[in-house]
Amino acid sequence: MALTSWKIFNFFDVSEVKPPDDGESSSIFDSNDLHCICSGSDNIFVGSNDGHVRILSQAFKIVRTFKAHDNGPITQIKQVEGTALLVTISEDLSNEPVLKVWALDKTEKRTGAPKCLSSLDIHNGRKQFPISAFATLENLSQLAVGFANGAVTVIRGDLIHDRGAKQRTVFESEEPITGVEFREGPNTTLYLATTGRILTLTITGKGQGQPAKVLEDTGCGVGCMTFDDANGDIVVVRDDAIHYYGVNGRGPSFAYEGPKQLVSIFGDYVALVTPPKASPPTKMSTLRRFVGSQRDDLYNTSTFALLDTDLKYIAHTETLISQVKALFIEWDDLFLLTLDGKLFRYHEKTLQQKLEILYQRDLYVLAINFAQKAGVDTAQRNVILRKYGDYLHKKGDYDTAMQQYLKAIDNTEPSQVIRKFLDSQRINNLIEYLEELHDHDKATVDHTTLLLNCYAKLKDTEKLETFIKSGTNFDLETAISMCRQGSYYDQAVFLAKKNSEHELVIDILIEDSKKYEDALDYIWRLAPEMAYPNMMKYARILLEHCEEDATQIFIDYYTGQYRPREDVPIPTVQEPQAGGAYNVANLTSFIPLPYRQASVNPSPGTAGNQQLAGADAADAEAGQAPPEYDIPKPRTAFSSFVDHPENFITFLEACLKQENLDKSDMTDLYTALFEMYLETANTKKGEEKETWEAKAKKLIDGKDIPIDASNVLLLSHLSNFRDGTTLVREQQGLRFDIFRSYTSANDTAGAIKALRKYGPEEPQLYPAALAYFTSDPKILEEAGHELDLVLKKIDQDGLMAPLQVIQTLSTNAVATMGMVKKYLSDTIERERKEISNNRRLIESYRTETESKRKEMDDLGNKPAVFQATRCAACGRSLDLPTVHFLCKHSFHQSCLNETDGVEAECPKCAAANNNIRSFRKAQEDSADRHDMFQDALQRSRDKFGTISEFFGRGVMTAPTAE
């Protein structure tokens, strides 16, 4: 690139330095005595023609002057940065140049001048030619001096401690030396420049002693070569261009036509002095260039420029009315000294000032490169990018503008950019920016919402899926909400599942996608404590659409057999002719996923494999013990089965098969199942109805059923299930209530059935049946001959007195005399017979009583005649002593076994007499047992007969006073 195409800026503030007006200092720069100048260690050092060295402070005031050389002017001067060392060279063409090393921090006691550490004459083979180039290492271990005759002398030694030095001419040429520079490293290399060539020479290390290596067959003038410390290359300026050279050869070049006078490196810049016109070279003018300045060129103008060869711009350029004598750097500024004695300071503008200049000219690309080279922080660099983006946006280059905004995304308020691209025509740019915001974790809920809206507006499902599957950090709730609003349900499910939002996954599958089987399958894969709340929340919906599977998961969970389902990889049989793509696709089937939707219509080639995989999964689950979890109460699931009676019955029956059920749970289950049996029976007809009623009856049949009797009665009544009511009353002994329930319902057949079943054990049912049968003509007709049987049973068991029967039948005019004629005739006939028998019995009792009473009178008032001749005990003839009893029994006295003090009793009649006495005593004892009388009276069917019996026992006899 030609230098003329480079942008030109004014990045430097130029000011003329005015030395203090204190005599010698005021005219130090415009004095003809000044021959050379250098800077270092916060001072400026001036070498004069009279051999003196003057040291100037930062205020450009002479602070020290000393005589350095006695013969000839000081032509070369160098200060070692960071030390108090100063090197001076004085030349007198009649003698060899003299080099001295000064210690400025040490003084001679006699003169007060700095101490001269060492002094030596520089050899040039006794050829008196001026020094055209001079360079030193920082430690002064080596110095190189180039002469106008083409010789280069290298001085080695300890000049600081004056321990001697060796000189050697390392290079000779027919061309004058125009520049020398050292490059340190593993090998110390010396760059050489002549008027006709650029060379390198290794003076220490590997390669030492070898001839100089030519880098370029074109040389340069004096002052037109300098060393760039940043990269270790030398910069050479010639009439055609600016060239860089390294150890191995030529580097980049920058075309810049015109003569060159002086070059220097100032930071990142190349300081270049160019005279506007080049005088034709003559032998005399060439000699003058090496000897000194030209007086006749005092008023010639020259150009001074500062170039940045890296970014290819000119930082400063100006035309000087006088030629440049010297350039030097100190205090972070560049100083330029002209032949007319004026000193100019070049102070670089601040970074922000330079950027403002670039902004004004809309040179944002250069500003970005400039800031990057300057090493600015990210925030400041992003400011430039934003300004560049704004500039491009105004020009209508939206795509490039967005690229700049994206680069500056870390320090940019997103709203500033988003507002610029809200136009629907710029939606792609907006999407790009929003995606980048999410990649940098800078997106808010609003940004996520806006991005998803953009995808939805473009109907770009592919990008939407890529976004949500990329793992980019965004607000999950917002993303899912937007996907649901845009009907991207599969994507919403993916997001929720990925973030373990199980309830949200199920909600989307049920409420939005209507994929009920998938939702149930997902629930079945959750841990018990997570599956339960979701299962209960959506129980009714799942039962409505997936009856069998939903019922099964309830059964498994409430019976403690719940096992989370696990995916089993489905092996796919590879077709022999299938290609590579087919193989890759099949690999996806081996990826175990926590949730995967099965194909609705599996291909024939994989159907068998799916069945096999399903069997393997079932076997795997069967072999695993169910996880431990708290089994909820069965009643908590009852409300879920509303409108699903058959599934509810299946659930209840499965729960009842468990062992060690809690008593309260068993009661709930039995009660609910009994109710469901009855409800189902009410919806059926014929045999189906009888089947369900039989199940209900079987459930409550038996002892110790866990259902509360009141619940059974209530449910049976509500469902009009008489068998249930009857069964409960039977179990509780309420037979009369069973019969009454039939009679209250006017169920004559049921009443007859109950009478036949419970009548033998509950005789009071017959009087009630009599009253019921004769309560209505229709009932009496339905009863038929059953009335006769009832009357017969009443009559046989004496359940009612005939008068009571008559009173019952006379309550209403239903029964006729013809119906009870036989009963009445039989009753009257029986009564007559009983009366007749009673009369005969009374007469016999009277006769026997009179006979006994007369016998007693005779025994008490008349003598008794004993005619027995034999002993009633032994049967032998009676002989004295003999004992006769009034009962007409006679005994030998010896046969009686009499006891002293005890009255003798007839042995034959003793047993009968004892029985009579015991019976009498029992009567007397029972006379005071009124409770026995009451109990017998209550249990007796013949109350009057019982009273008569106890009256005969003396129960009602008044107690005698003693």
Question: What is the topology?
Answer:
Elements: E1 7-8, E2 12-17, E3 34-40, E4 43-48, E5 52-56, E6 62-67, E7 74-79, E8 85-92, E9 95-107, E10 114-121, E11 131-136, E12 142-147, E13 152-157, E14 165-171, E15 177-183, E16 188-194, E17 198-204, E18 213-216, E19 225-228, E20 233-237, E21 241-246, E22 249-255, E23 262-266, E24 269-274, H1 283-291, E25 302-308, E26 313-320, E27 324-330, E28 333-338, E29 343-348, H2 351-360, H3 364-374, H4 378-395, H5 398-407, H6 414-418, H7 427-439, H8 445-458, H9 461-469, H10 476-485, H11 489-498, H12 502-512, H13 516-524, H14 528-537, H15 539-545, H16 547-558, H17 580-587, H18 604-622, H19 645-656, H20 663-683, H21 686-700, H22 709-718, H23 722-731, H24 735-744, H25 748-758, H26 765-773, H27 777-783, H28 786-797, H29 802-809, H30 817-861, E30 882-884, E31 890-892, H31 907-926, H32 930-939, H33 943-952
Parallel strand pairs: 1-26
Antiparallel strand pairs: 2-29, 3-4, 4-5, 5-6, 7-8, 8-9, 9-10, 11-12, 12-13, 13-14, 15-16, 16-17, 17-18, 19-20, 20-21, 21-22, 23-24, 24-25, 25-26, 27-28, 28-29, 30-31
Helix pairs in contact: 2-3, 3-4, 4-5, 5-7, 7-8, 8-10, 10-11, 11-12, 12-13, 15-16, 16-19, 19-20, 20-21, 20-22, 21-23, 22-23, 24-25, 25-26, 26-28, 28-30, 32-33
Describe this structure in words.
Its EC number is 2.3.2.27. With 962 residues, the chain is α+β, with helices and mostly antiparallel strands. The chain has 33 helices and 31 strands. Strands 1-26-25-24-23 form a 5-stranded mixed sheet, with no helix packed on it. It has a 4-stranded antiparallel sheet with strand order 2-29-28-27, with no helix packed on it. It has a 4-stranded antiparallel sheet with strand order 3-4-5-6, with no helix packed on it. Residues 283-298 and 568-620 have low confidence and may be disordered.
